[in-house]
Amino acid sequence: MSLQADPASLPRLLSGMPVDGAMGLEEHWAIHGETPFAKRRERRGTGALIDLVERAGLLGRGGGAFPAATKMHAVAGARGRPIVLANVAEGEPASDKDRVLMEGLPHLVLDGGVLAARALGADELILCIDESGEAALESATRAIYERERAGGDALKVSVQIVPAGYVSGQESALVNLCNGGQALPAFASPMPFECGVRRRPTLINNAETLAHLALIARYGPEWFRALGTQAHPGSTMLTLSGAITHPGVYEIEQGAPLASLIEAAGGMTGQIRAMLLGGYAGTWLEGGSISTLELSNDRLAAHEASLGAGVVVLLSREACPVAETARVASWLAAQSSGQCGPCVHGLQAIAGAIAQLAAGTASAGTGQRIERWTSMVTGRGACAHPDGVLSFLTSAVNVFAEEFADHARHGPCDACSRAKELPLPALAEMATAA
């Protein structure tokens, strides 16, 4: 049954996903048809596609959940010929969804980028791919070649390799990189929509957002809204990991129960102590809330949580949450771009204090110092990195208060030496082991 015939069915984005390798152009066309609007230039700001995206209520899937049509309108209203950037620089270690899309379904992502470019009158599409994503890079390169051989998109499409780093995929960091600088967030810079790559208005969307856009262009806003909630329509992709039988990337309906996702992934491998939602800029919640959680930002707001970068990690009761938190806190502090004092010194101080609590070597008043430092760092810096780290850390200290208190009194526990469950890049794991 086609996607159009049953709008309430899943998968959508992952329809026809190959077991190995990337879907070729002919197979992509066989499933979805050729790219609509792609050969036709539209007057900027009046394109049919922007209207479709607005009526669909598509929200960005990069973490901020910003309305996609609002971004497009802003670029369309700026002066100069726009450029479109597809952000596949997935710096979040707990997320694989954008990499999986580019590896397996590159033409769906390219369709979204090409369509957005045409709606805005842009003449260039740049794919920003993390340097560690060799398979994604190979898939993108082959897909661009296939499209050129098939007649092309009348659009310049290129690839920008992005150095590995947690903040490298931040919008202003990508703009800096594409302008010949380093992949570092800019402080108080013009917004990309008005002055981005080569000082031209620049639309930046992640791979999943562009893939949704490509389907909305084909099947329409009513089809898109047949799934999801009123405030957060459609489907979304999540990376599920931790104490689960089949970890991986899943496509779910917005607002679906967490319990149904766990069931689809083969069930849990043991009892769950807590859940991390949104990634390492996200929020910890008690494991006992699994049966009540529904996975969309509007439903999670009551828990002061969100899906963020599309991450759900289930932490088992066998793991030591204090050791896990201290390990990730140290890595996150090291991911600072080194430009802002509150981020560089504040995060290092907080991570160091948490490490002392984990080791049982913290002095009296360490908890109060962490609270004071947190208040001094919040809301400061060139990007949202400090705030995201503090969301992760403060929710961990709250949810795991009993374990932190026990470590502060008695030092490391037996579970501290277990294999860690929270994912970090391979090089970071080697450094931790050393």
Q: How many domains would you count in the coordinates?
A: 3
User: How many strands appear in the DSSP assignment?
Assistant: 11
**Assembly state of the chains shown:** single chain
> What would you give as the CATH superfamily of the largest domain?
NADH-ubiquinone oxidoreductase 51kDa subunit
Biggest sheet character: 5 strands, mixed
Q: Which structural category fits the helices and strands?
A: alpha/beta
Average pLDDT figure? 92
Distance between the termini: 53 Å
Strand order of the main beta sheet, please? Answer: 6-5-11-8-9
Which class of the largest domain in CATH terms? Answer: Alpha Beta
CATH architecture of the largest domain: 3-Layer(aba) Sandwich
Name the shape in a single word: globular
CATH topology of the largest domain: Rossmann fold
List the total number of helices.
17
Rg, Å, rounded: 22 Å
If you had to describe this structure to a student in words, what would you say it looks like?
The chain has helices at residues 25-32, 48-56, 68-77, 97-104, 106-120, 134-149, 171-178, 207-219, 221-225, 258-264, 297-300, 321-334, 341-359, 366-377, 385-399, 401-410, 426-433; strands at residues 83-88, 124-130, 156-162, 202-206, 235-242, 248-253, 256-257, 272-277, 283-286, 294-295, 311-316. It is an alpha/beta fold and 434 residues long. The protein folds into 3 domains: 25-225, NADH-ubiquinone oxidoreductase 51kDa subunit (Rossmann fold, 3-Layer(aba) Sandwich), CATH 3.40.50; 235-316, Ubiquitin-like (UB roll) (Roll), CATH 3.10.20; 321-433, de novo design (two linked rop proteins) (Up-down Bundle). The strands form 3 sheets. Strands 6-5-11-8-9 form a 5-stranded mixed β-sheet. Strands 3-2-1-4 form a 4-stranded parallel β-sheet, sandwiched between helices. Strands 7-10 form a two-stranded antiparallel ribbon. β2 (124-130), α6 (134-149) and β3 form a beta-alpha-beta unit. The longest helix is centred in the C-terminal third of the chain and has 19 residues, at 341-359. Residues 42-46 and 430-434 have low confidence and may be disordered.
